Write the structure tokens for this entry.
Amino acid sequence: MPHGFYHYMAAADYAGGYVAEKQYTYVSGKIRFIVLLYEIATGDMLAQIEADYMGRLRTGAHPG
């Protein structure tokens, strides 16, 4: 990506039965996040979440 970057992270909760991935891009000053949640037993995608606000809640970050 000539004007930005792409990141990918994955996690699994084997006891709970879920796997998830978070992807985000930063291009020309804009950052975009998405989280995909899957059920391990079936492989079904349970959620697709535009995750900018979710990440802010998790980190407690807010505009200065």
About this structure: The first strand starts at residue 4 and ends at 13. The CA atoms of residues 22 and 63 lie 22 Å apart.
